[in-house]
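Following up on my earlier thread - several people asked me to post the actual chain instead of describing it. Fair enough. Here it is, all 82 residues.
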Amino acid sequence: MIDEKSLTEEQLIEYKGLIQTQNAAISQLQFMREQLPNYESNVKALKKQIPEVEKKIQILDEQIRNFPKKPEETENAGNSDA
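Reply from S.P.:
Thanks for posting it. Predicted structure:
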């Protein structure tokens, strides 16, 4: 620890600023450590959801590739309604 009485006013201001910055960084680190389990569980949940979303994308991709329907499919659909 520095003897604050031996510092000039300018040095004292700078020193106190460094201490405040360090304390803020320590608080931020503590918060991040506290939140880590939440992030880890979120990652696990997201990893479980990825295959479902990929499957939906594949289905939609196939629907998009087949759009619009071929003219004969549209005509048959029109005739079956009549």
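The two ends are 92 Å apart (CA to CA). That should answer part of your original question.
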